[in-house]
Prior knowledge:
With 296 residues, the chain is of the alpha/beta class. It is built from ten helices and nine strands. Strand 4, helix 3 and strand 5 (114-119) form a beta-alpha-beta unit.
Amino acid sequence: MRSGFVTLIGRPNVGKSSLVNAFFGRKILIVSDKPQTTRNRIRCIYTDEENQIIFTDTPGIHKPIHRLGEFMVKAAIQAMKGCDLILFVVDSSKGFGEPEMRMCELVKTSQTNTFLVVNKIDLVDDYLQIAEVTKDRCGVFSKVFFTSVIKNQGIIELFEAIKLSLPEGPMYFPSQMTTDRPISFQAAELIREKILLLTREEVPHCVAVIVDQVIEKEEGILYIAATIYVERQSQKGILIGKAGSMIKQIGTLARMEIESVVNKKVYLDLHVKVKKNWRDKDFIILNEIGMKDEIE
């Protein structure tokens, strides 16, 4: 069996989570059109008869303006340590810039086998030039791939190359396991994804979701209580909506997806609270949204 750890790095919103979902052929990670959708290192485990690949999706590397952002960048950097392969993902529509230059230095330091993945090639015509510029400035890539999740281009070729690049090794996780995160984390992420989908402007970036309770009821229903934290009272009003319309819509969409994960009925109990400037000041919140491991 071939097995190993593959870390995806790139600036925010280059399509790292979408690539992982494409490898699995189904949704494993939340996605949205908002930058910094991914806040934590998340391991996704792919297993077939000949391979086990542990993909680590990471927050986009960016210049942080809050302590939350600092922890996100630290999580991405730490994920490169000890992995077998790095996928350096570039958005072809944005090209090579300062974030990519910083990542190049990190990759060079890691001395890890690295593939350049020029993603979203459906958006531009000159993606070959993007690859040449990136290779010239970095010079650390063993292979280059061109992909589009929307058009399903280059995905199979990249996936097969990943498999062949990994060493012979053991099965690190049970074959039926697809993520190392508990259901409380998965539920919180799905709730946050629906908020990202349904809200605009500053609201998506000011939201933290904490699952307070997960209880198996006697009638076979999974009870999940979660608190949505925002930074201002006005944001709370937006999330609740007129006569509770927005929070009801968020809950309905999230519950349906959580039920597909746990394969049982779910009762989702959502509450919204204001926690001023939590992204800068509150270590408790940062720990509870799943980043405790990133700051130790």
